[in-house]
Design a protein that fits this description.
mainly beta, 0% helix
Amino acid sequence: MPENFYTARVDHKLSANDGLFGTYLYDDTDFTQPDSFNNVLLKSHTRRQTVVLGESHTFGLALSIQCELVTAAVTHSTSFPLGRSNPAAALTSLGSTTGQAAQS
């Protein structure tokens, strides 16, 4: 299963007590899996992107506050058939619906 996964992080110290940070995540992958009867191979595609921006402030040794702004986008295409993994799935006599074979 090929997967393109990237992550980047940037930290910046504004002062002794303040800092900014940002993180970007990108995940793009195709995957193939059989249907529940193991007759047809299904292909799916997923893409995920996340951005995190934040600020931290330290008030002393006992108190530190961190604020974050997060946005995320996820896309997933519906599984679509690639082909039959079981030759018997082409037989209409074995289909779950009369006169029809497994989806191809």
